[in-house]
Structure formats: structure tokens, C-alpha cells
Design a protein that fits this description.
The chain is of the alpha/beta class. The chain has nine helices and eight strands.
Amino acid sequence: MIAQAIENIRKELPQGVKLVAVSKFHPSEAIMEAYGAGQRCFGESRPQEFEAKAKALPEDIEWHFIGHLQTNKLKMVLPYVSMVQSVDSEHLLRAIDRWCAGAGKTVDVLLELHLGAEQTKQGFTAEEIEAVLSSAADYPNVRLRGLMGMATNTDDEGIIRGDFERISALMQHYKEKFSTFKEFNELSIGMSGDWRIAVEYGATCVRIGTSIFGERQY
């Protein structure tokens, strides 16, 4: 079932769009079923769960951290992660940079954009992201790779399209204004319910969990 779901999604995904299989709350056995189907990129959001999986599962898995990350949990995540998609504050960005400096490591990050539609969501404002990019030299141990965002949790496709259109437009603005940042080219938008729409608006990465693994298991 998991393997078939991955195959079906891959058939629809345009070339160059990365599938992050969101495996949070699902056991290692489910991840290995997806792994057996050729999936190598997985997304986790709880540091303790992520660390246990990263230590136990194959080393060639490309792990993306996609949840809120507290600075006191960096040591559970950064040794194993390929990308932190959910950098939602300058405080966290500085902490990641300091940890990487001490570890002699460079980590790819996405800056999480908060659209303001839902007050519970964390993230940078558009202006704050611009300020971070203007001072990118202050973070020599991270690679600023792009934006992560999510649409408003609604069944109204018009609202979803409006959110993705705004994120996409901001991404284009940053790419043009900071054109020397050649690596700033990743746009992670779209989840199980709206990833097809996200692709229309330039997603380079989609985060799909329920459509692959079903409802959370723990």
C-alpha cells in the first residue's frame, strides 16, 4: 500500500520536484516499506523520535526536519539531518549556526514564512526574511536554501491558491533581489491535501505524509 502510494505520487510529480515522505508518528517498519520502494527522503518533526529513527535506519536516508525546533534539542537533530526546513526565527538560525561552527558542519536550511492567516503558526514575516538574507554573512555555517510555507488550513481552494501565489511571488522577489545567492532556490510548499496546487506555483519540494502512510499511528 505504501509502495503503491509512492509510485502513484511520483507519476504525477514533475521532474525536479522532490518528494519528502513525512514519516513523523509512523514506525520504522513503515519507513522501511517506503525505503524498499526507492524512497530516500523523509521528514520528521519531533527531535527525540527523529534521533531514534536516524540512528536505527539506513545511513543513505536523506532526513529533513520539518517541525518546530527548540534550541535545546539541536544535538538530537543536527548531527543527522540533511536540511532543516522549519527555521522560524533569527534566534534559532543563530543557534544552528553556532552549533555547526562547533561541530565543523554546514547545514542546509529553509526559512519558514508565516503568512499571518493563522496565528498559531510560527515563522518569519516577509520583511524579517529579507533582513536575514541581507545579513547572510552573519551565518557562515548554514546554507540559506529557500523558503518553507504552508497554506491556510481550509477546503477553500481559492484561499489556498492565494496563499501559494503570495509565497511564490515572495520567493521570486528574493531570488531577484539577492541574485548572487545561487543556492537560494528551494520552495517547500504543499502537503497531502494541496500538493498538486503547490506544484502549479513553483514548489520544488512537497511534504506528503497521510497520502503515503495513512493516519498517524502513534
